[in-house]
Amino acid sequence: MVKLALRNILRNRRRSLLSAFAIAVSAMSIILLLALVEGMEVDMRTNLIAYYTGEIRIRSSQYARYERYHPLHLSLDDEAITTVLERMDEVAETSGRISFPAALYRGDRSRPVLTMGFDFTRETAFSNLASILSEGRLPHDRSNELVMGAVLAKGLDITVGDRVTLLASTAAGSSNAMSFTVVGIVKPPIGSLSSSTLYLSLERAQHLLFMEGRVQELVVRSTGAVSLPALAGEIAALVAEELGIETETQAFSQLNEMYGFLRIAKYIYYVIALIFFLLGSTVIINTTMMVIFERMAEIGMMKALGMDDGKVRLLFLLEGAFISAAGALAGVLVGVLITAVLSRVGIDFTEAMSGIEMEVSSVLYPSITAFTAVAVYLYGVAIATLSTLIPTRRAARIQVVEALHYV
Question: What is the 3-state secondary structure (H, E, C) of 182-240?
Answer without folding.
Answer: EEEEECCCCHHHHHHEEEEEHHHHHHHHCCCCEECEEEEEECCCCCHHHHHHHHHHHHH
